[in-house]
Amino acid sequence: MADPFEVRQRFTTLLAHLNASHNSLHKAALYALKNREMDEDLHSCILEQLERTNMNTRANIMFFIECLCEYAVKDNTNGDASAMGYVRMLQRDILAVVECVVGSEGANVRVVRKVLRTLEGLNILMKETVQELEAVLKSREVAHPFLATGDVNGKESPGKAARGPAGGGQRMGKREIEQRIEEDRERHKRLRESIWAVNGDGYEELERLWEEASDIGEDDYVTAREDAEERRRVIAFG
């Protein structure tokens, strides 16, 4: 059995260096599954990192939680329920997780909403629970989260501005904003890839394209004739 202290240190490092790439999330999730006998300790590491890290890393940890739960549910479906401890502890602490990820600056509301929908779809969270958490998200939303400080309403008095942000909220620096933009771009890229991904066996892609294509109408014939006429003129001219 691996040394518990070493496992915690390694897992904490993985969480602290998470990014938007699938490999990063996959690596951390597999490490947690590999050491599932220490699920309580590793779950506490997740909560600790959420409390101490920056906004971008908190968003990545939320997506890591989504990835970990998907793997745990998949193992459970295949007859191995040993990883479901992570799921049960998430269900117990979901409010604390959501509040930490969103933070006082309210910049991760969309991230949390997306993950909550996934967890609801996996039957990890009940619909009523998600609705209750939605009320928390609405209370944290701000118009310009990247510029928000400690006040969730996006307002602060001159006194607060002089003392610095309250409740741990921080105005994002240029580097953090650029990092967030790049990571959001990576996530959107993966989302588009997952939408278009199909099984390589048989004619699944052909059948899907056939079903999605609309019937040929009169406009299509008109367009085809116009294209053909344009090609003839180009050939005659050249």
UniProtKB/TrEMBL annotation:
Q: Which PROSITE patterns match?
A: CID (PS51391)
Which intervals of the chain are annotated as region Disordered?
149-174
GO BP term, example: positive regulation of transcription by RNA polymerase I
GO cellular component terms, alphabetically, are: CTDK-1 complex
Q: Which InterPro entries match?
A: CID_dom, Ctk3, Ctk3_C, Ctk3_N, ENTH_VHS
Q: Which organism is it from?
A: Pyrenophora teres f. teres (strain 0-1)
Question: What is the name of this protein?
Answer: CID domain-containing protein
Which segments constitute the CID domain?
A: 3-141
